[in-house]
Design brief:
With 236 residues, the chain is mostly helical. The protein contains ten helices and no strands.
Amino acid sequence: MNNRKENDGNRTKRNFTLKRFLCTGRELLVETRGSLHTSRGKWGLALFLFGMVVGIYKALTGAELDEKQSNLFFATLWSAMGLVVLSSLQNYKLLYLLPMSRKEFAAGQMQKAAWIAIIILGVITAQFACMNFGMENFWQNVIWKGIPVSISLSAYQIAWIKPIKESETTGTKMYHLSFWVLILDVGIGFLNLMFVVDSWNMFHWTLSVLNYGICICATLYFYRKIAFVDLYYDEL
């Protein structure tokens, strides 16, 4: 009987489950719909659509592959910034009053960043699809460039979050994040996406693998900083 209670307790402590991930997606959708009723949310939507439209337009009209891909990262970055603004309603809620543990909140932030990464990946994939790659090169670019770059850009959501309306306490200050980690994470994504792949030689494979490795390390770093942060919501 005691073992059964312990097993039930262990199940409740699992923060990274499919059910929790889907619940985070539903919460993200609700926040996005609520954000559309604010001027800030409307600007975020406009910025997101602007980056996506410009990226696809440049991908379709660029004369050379170099010209097409040179605009890919910046257009995607605009989309990511707009998406984070649109999907973050924290400025209008006192989240630090919610009854949750630090690890639960950290897991929620990681899952929200994962949803942001999935949406960004969709934007990058749409741009790759407009570049007239062959099928093999298309999937290689999605797997070795689109996925790790999306994870890198999703870190913007964690660094930008503000727990209180009009607060100057952003995620970087609240979690004591290292700017070197943020620069390294986004910087490797920038290099990986900017280099045009006409043949998958050792250099391009090395850059992509390095991008994946830094993304994993940065994700673990963010989770640890949020879960074990010195300054937490109940101390604000």
